[in-house]
Amino acid sequence: MAGKREDYISWDEYFMGVAMLSGMRSKDPNTQVGCCIVSQDHKILSMGYNGLPIGCSDDEFPWEREGESPLDTKYVYTVHSELNAILNYSGGSLAGAKLYVSLFPCNECCKAIIQSGIKEVIYDCDKYADTPEVQASKKMMEAAGVAYNQYQRTNRTITIKL
């Protein structure tokens, strides 16, 4: 009898992979962010990606980064992946859960993360680290006892044929 496979993916690879795959559902032409919320016993509780609220057409609202008015840009309309994942969860409390996300959470998503009881954030990219929004997020997470750690890439390539 042969032994078990040794090349299986780790929990972190699995959940960050699910978050990244979720981000591929985003219609945003510039930034696709995905999120996966996981229980303490490694069960996926919810997922989300950045996009428009339910009932708002992807074809009728703007996706631009700049415009004559904020109303001409995507920023006042889109829901971030973390908030979408929190709002998509219908199982009760998220207390003690872990959140995997492809981009470090902004200050608004951070508030929802803290309020929902999530205790750890694993993020892939922190390209906005120098912005006031991300600096505020880190300050709030530290004050609230929410751990945040950068995902340690393994550079493993996984191909899925659909």
Q: Can you describe what's shown?
A:
With 162 residues, the chain is of the alpha/beta class. The protein is built from 4 helices and 5 strands; from the N terminus they run αββαβαβαβ. The protein has helices at residues 11-23, 81-88, 107-116, 132-144; strands spanning 34-38, 44-49, 98-103, 120-125, 147-150. Strands 2-1-3-4-5 form a 5-stranded mixed β-sheet. The longest helix has 13 residues, at 11-23. It is globular. The mean pLDDT is 96.
Query: Which structural category fits the helices and strands?
Result: alpha/beta
Q: Mean of the pLDDT scores? A: 96
User: Within the largest sheet, what's the order of strands?
Assistant: 2-1-3-4-5
The geometry reads as globular
Instruction: Work out the oligomeric state of the chains in this entry.
Output: single chain
* Helicity level: 25-40%
| Uncertain segments | none
Please provide the ordered H/E string of secondary-structure elements: HEEHEHEHE
Euclidean distance between termini CA atoms: 32 Å
Q: Could you tell me the radius of gyration in angstroms?
A: 17 Å
| Beta fraction | 15-25%
Q: What is the tally of beta strands?
A: 5
Largest sheet: 5 strands, mixed
Count of helical regions: 4
